[in-house]
Specification:
Blueprint (H helix, E strand, L loop, with lengths): L1 H54 L3 E10 L4 E10 L5 E14 L15 E5 L4 E9 L1 H12 L3 E12 L5 E11 L4 E4 L5 E2 L1
Antiparallel strand pairs: 1-2, 2-5, 3-4, 3-6, 6-7, 7-8, 7-9
Length: 194
């Protein structure tokens, strides 16, 4: 009987050993499954962010122009284009302009009031944000300062909109007038978007 007990004990010990090894392997498999699930979630998050970035609306300034009205008003227009794949909803925009000393451009406080509503801009559609400055004749008188490069004619503004995913986006823009090209070029700072 002792022999049978000894054999049963050995068999029980071997069974317990294999049971422990099976439980360890199961625990390792569960850990690997958790890691794989987390990696899959991360991949889904990246895919979702990428899809949103590819599909959402992007408002970009396409053209800046101005003209002086004969009654002394300066009209500035910024053509905003939705270069994204979905509509830009609840779009608002504000445009401002000033003639400022050239050496102060980098430190100038480009302030923007609350922008008025413009509506929805569909994909590839454009809308013009306008600014009317009284005293356009003053601008004509100061044109020599711009020609002499002591002052710079700057147009700046912002566009805010809600993308198709319900997130509020903002585009800020700053342009300076180049007398040589008779066109506006972006300033080095202040042109950004979310």
């Amino acid at each position: 009987m002792t022999l049978v007990s000894a054999i049963a004990t050995i068999i029980s010990g071997v069974a317990v050993y294999f049971l422990v090894k099976t439980l360890e392997a199961t625990r390792d498999a569960v850990r690997q499954a958790e890691l794989a699930t987390e990696a899959a979630r991360d991949a889904v998050d990246v895919t979702e962010r990428t899809a949103k970035a590819q599909l959402r609306a992007y408002i970009s300034p396409e053209k800046v122009s101005f003209y002086e009205h004969q009654e002394g008003w300066l009209f500035v227009g910024v053509v905003l284009k939705n270069v994204g794949q979905t509509p830009a909803n609840d779009t608002t925009s504000r445009v401002k302009c000033a003639i400022i000393p050239t050496h102060e451009v980098s430190d100038y406080r480009f302030l923007i009031d609350d922008p008025p509503p413009l509506g929805t801009i569909g994909p590839s559609q454009v809308i013009t944000a306008r600014f009317i400055q009284p005293g356009g004749n003053d601008f004509a008188d100061r044109f020599a300062e711009i020609e002499n490069n002591t002052h710079t004619f700057v147009v700046w503004g912002t566009a805010r909109y809600v993308d198709a995913f319900g997130e509020t986006q903002t585009t800020n823009f700053r342009y300076k007038y180049s007398i040589f090209s008779d066109d506006f070029t972006p300033l080095e700072q202040g042109n950004d978007s979310t």
